[in-house]
Design a protein that fits this description.
The complex is a heterodimer of chains A (525) and B (233).
Chain A (H helix, E strand, L loop, with lengths): L4 E6 L4 H5 L2 H9 L4 E7 L8 H10 L4 E6 L5 H11 L7 E5 H6 L6 H21 L5 E5 L4 E5 L3 H11 L4 E5 L11 E3 L2 E9 L2 E8 L2 E7 L1 E4 L11 H5 L3 E3 H9 L8 E4 L1 E2 L5 E2 L3 H17 L5 E5 L10 H8 L3 E4 L7 E2 L6 E5 L6 E5 L2 E4 L7 H9 L26 E3 L9 H20 L2 E5 L3 E3 L9 H5 L5 E3 L5 E3 L9 H5 L5 E3 L4 H12 L4
Parallel strand pairs in A: 1-2, 1-3, 3-4, 6-7, 6-12, 7-8, 12-23, 13-22, 14-17, 14-22, 17-18
Antiparallel strand pairs in A: 5-24, 9-10, 10-11, 15-16, 19-20, 20-21, 25-28, 26-27
Chain B lengths: L1 E5 L2 H8 L4 E7 L2 H4 L5 H18 L4 E7 L5 H5 L2 H5 L3 E4 L3 H10 L4 E4 L1 E11 L2 E6 L15 H4 L16 E2 L2 E5 L1 H11 L4 H4 L27 H7 L3
Parallel strand pairs in B: 2-3, 2-4, 4-5
Antiparallel strand pairs in B: 1-6, 6-7, 8-9
The chains are: A alpha/beta (525), B alpha/beta (233).
The structure holds iron/sulfur cluster (SF4) (3 copies).
């Protein structure tokens, strides 16, 4: 097949021509093989020029495109849709983000910027020639069930919101407590296992003494965290110990008691310290600062083994120290102790100074506390990852605060980390909305950029089966690996790890990637 | 399966340094599955060597390929031309593969790219552990299915020794005591009497110490007549 490429150069509202020599790029593109059309546009994102682009594409019988633009979310969907109308497969439209990769980082280096833009154009063209059109297929969902694990505030809010989409909500409540929510509420019910993928889950649940199967289009985890029970020798010994979120609420309500406040990482039952999620350090620092601002006279200590604040929160160390917060680092071999005979004194060996400190305790605040073991059962049943302290892990705090990495599985409330009822309810609402909307679609789309096994090369080593986070690969009847395309998210992990190089990801084949990289880096390797 | 580990890049590069034309040959069986010498590892090693050569300014032609099972002559024969066309072959199979090539082409140089380690079991992704040493006289029906020869540091037949404490081995506190595991297993199976019965010294003549072992199965061997018919000598 002979590729017929159209190259679009977007001037990104005139940012690009100030730095780059567009005429040179145009010339380079038009002199490259398989390029039938080169167009320079003012601003691809406002959509006015799309008609012109596709008209040209139709005349030249274009079948693929390389677009030098920005990665703005509004560029690609409209462009891909427009191209689709003239028969250009969506997977053959490559967008090269020259705004963020060239214009912004190299604003002061015209020559380097130009050279980089040219190399990126050539490598995208090299890859484009090798791309294959890919089709997507769809499968009907067998049910409209939205299964909500947990009937607390978050679960109830999720059910209410999801029900607005005309789906069937089913709450699995572990206890026999009364739950007010639309749809079905199953008391004494827990999730214990399952298989399937977003749209068609087959869950295993325990209701009282019996085991049942339950189909689900989407799932909301609202199981709470079991965070409120402080365990561990230290916590037991100390009166007035509380988790961070509780202290935070008290501080807001002006209900904190006088006396020294000690923030500490997690005490676990074995006396060792659990790893603490990053958010907990951010919040610890913020809370310590807030406390010091409100009550400068209060002595405040932050005791830790290993502390990691994220991003700009690092500045909070300095701010807290300037306000008089004392930081004490201890070693895991010498965990801080409270004398059982004198539960008001905490002794801790300061790793930096080597001294044994004795602190008179007012309030002891734990940054993070072990989550409920229920979380692990749920995570295993749905094959979703957990965070270091045993909570459910969300996809990404910016892009999916109530999503898990698995499509169709959402999470809210204290299953993520301890929080107030109001925040839990708000998250429940958000998760319910997404889960309801997901189930109401009625069908799932899949395919496109997914993995494929070349069975003659497969050694049936099970590596892909063990590695895939979505359980897409399985060993089929031919005793070779196969990919369940409905479940495959195209992450490429199996491709990278397959020892026999039997798996390829559509449109990210070795050949395509190597050709692209060789043009980018120059040379053979 | 046979579990192996790739040799460090520098050691391999040094071995190959004097030669102009190198063929790297992987194996798609055990060593592929233990992520040491399958097609992926071959390709990665070839790339790494090329990058290193470029950096060190060395001119060397390197090619990589894989065969189904390098310990079987028939599979190796399929790439005979490629082997003989090179100055040296780097085998990315276990030493069985390397020696098969070496025995087939005795004048040709065949070097090992892997360190062959053990008979191991994948405990989880990326973790293999030794469970058998191939002593030739299996006794695990009397030890709860756990091999003390492979899994006890002292290969004791009557254990545990006095150094077993808290289920760990005195030789290395990170290692589980095999005899503690045997005790637990036998208890689970209600066969604790076995731990009290004394096992006499084992017949070690089946083990490696007598030199190279060869197993033969008369019923599977071809008759001289059959061999002749197939042109095999
Ligand atoms: S990882 Fe590769 S060789 Fe192993 S089972 Fe999967 S496809 Fe087959
Ligand atoms: S590409 Fe990712 S999601 Fe798809 S099968 Fe491979 S590991 Fe699983
Ligand atoms: S401690 Fe256990 S494993 Fe270690 S040598 Fe003794 S019996 Fe063997």
């Amino acid at each position: 097949m002979n590729a017929k490429i159209q190259v679009l150069l977007c001037k990104c509202c005139s940012e690009v021509p100030e730095l780059l020599n567009i005429a040179k790029l145009e010339k380079l593109a038009s002199e490259s093989g398989n390029v039938l059309s080169v167009m320079t546009l003012d601003a691809l994102c406002d959509g006015k020029e799309l008609a012109m682009v596709v008209a040209e594409a139709r005349i030249k019988e274009i079948d693929r495109a390389v677009v030098l633009a920005c990665q703005k979310k509004d560029v690609s969907p409209a462009l891909i849709k427009a191209y689709k109308r003239v028969g250009v497969n969506e997977h053959l439209v490559q967008i090269v983000n020259i705004r963020e990769e060239v214009v912004l980082p190299h604003a002061a280096e015209q020559e380097r910027a130009q050279a980089k833009a040219q190399t990126m154009l050539l490598s995208a063209l090299a890859r484009s020639r090798l791309l294959q059109p890919l089709e997507r297929s769809s499968e009907d969902m067998k049910t409209r069930n939205v299964v909500i694990v947990g009937g607390g505030v978050a679960g109830q809010a999720a059910a209410k919101e999801a029900a607005k989409y005309g789906v069937h909500t089913i709450i699995l409540e572990k206890t026999g407590k009364s739950v007010t929510a639309p749809g079905v509420v199953m008391p004494h019910a827990t999730l214990i296992g399952g298989k399937g993928y977003g749209g068609n889950f087959e869950l295993k649940i325990r209701v009282g003494e019996s085991l049942e199967d339950l189909g689900a289009a989407s799932v909301v985890i609202a199981s709470g965290g079991g965070w409120s029970t402080l365990k561990g020798a230290l916590a037991k010994a100390v009166r007035g110990a509380m988790p961070l979120y509780e202290f935070h609420q008290k501080l807001h309500a002006e209900q904190t008691s006088a006396g020294t406040v000690v923030f500490m990482d997690t005490p676990d039952p074995a006396g060792k310290t659990l790893k603490v999620q990053d958010y907990a350090w951010d919040e610890t620092l913020e809370t310590a600062i807030e406390l010091k601002r409100k009550h400068p006279e209060t002595a405040v200590y932050v005791i830790f083994q290993e502390m990691r604040a994220s991003g700009l929160s690092e500045l909070a160390y300095k701010e807290a120290a300037e306000l008089g917060v004392k930081f004490v680092r201890y070693d895991r071999s010498a965990t801080p102790k409270v004398d059982p005979k004198d539960p008001t004194t905490l002794s801790v060996k300061d790793l930096t100074q080597g001294d044994e400190l004795k602190i008179r305790l007012g309030t002891m605040v734990f940054a993070s506390i072990p989550a409920s073991p229920d979380n692990q059962i749920i995570a295993e049943a749905l094959r979703i990852p957990m965070s270091v302290d045993g909570a459910i892990r969300r996809g990404s705090i910016q892009r999916g605060p109530v999503s898990t990495p698995k499509p169709g599985v959402f999470v809210c409330g204290s299953a993520l980390f301890p929080k107030s009822r109001e925040v839990a309810a708000a998250e429940g609402q958000a998760a319910g909305k997404l889960a309801g909307e997901f189930a109401a679609r009625g069908s799932i789309e899949f395919g496109g950029i997914v993995a494929q096994v070349t069975q003659e090369k497969c050694s049936a080593c099970l590596t892909c089966v063990r590695t895939c986070p979505y359980e897409a690969p399985f060993i089929g009847t031919a005793s070779k690996a196969e990919i369940r395309v409905q479940a495959c998210q195209g992450c490429g992990m199996c491709v990278g790890i397959c020892p026999s190089k039997a798996i390829e990801l559509h449109n990210y084949t070795d050949d395509q990637i190597m050709t692209e990289s060789k043009t980018l880096l120059g040379g053979d390797f | 399966m046979i579990v192996a580990k790739r040799k460090p890049l520098n050691e391999i590069a040094e071995m190959l340094a004097p030669y102009k034309k190198v063929t790297v040959i992987g194996c798609r069986s055990c060593v592929a599955i233990c992520l040491a010498g399958g097609e992926k590892e071959v390709k990665m090693l070839v790339s790494a060597l090329k990058v290193k050569n470029k950096r060190d300014g060395r001119k060397q032609h390197i090619e990589g390929t894989v065969v189904e099972r390098q310990c079987e002559k028939e599979w190796v024969q399929e790439i005979e031309a490629q082997i003989l066309d090179s100055d040296v072959t780097l085998s990315m199979a276990c030493s069985l593969g390397a020696q098969t090539i070496g025995d087939m082409y005795p004048k040709h140089l065949t070097f090992p790219g892997l360190n062959t380690g053990m008979f191991g079991v994948p405990e989880e992704q990326g973790v293999w552990s030794e469970k058998c040493v191939g002593c030739g006289n299996c006794i695990i029906h009397t030890t709860g299915g756990i091999c003390p020869i492979a899994r006890c540091a002292k290969s004791m037949l009557n254990g545990p020794c006095g150094g077993s404490a808290n289920r760990k081995c005195e030789v290395n506190l990170e290692v589980d005591c095999a005899w503690a595991a045997i005790y637990d297993r036998l208890k689970l199976q209600n066969r604790l009497d076995l731990i009290e019965s004394v096992t006499p010294a084992k017949d070690w003549s089946t083990s490696h110490s007598g030199g190279r072992r060869v197993f033969e199965r008369e019923d599977a061997k071809l008759t001289p007549h059959q061999k002749k018919g197939k042109g095999v000598t």
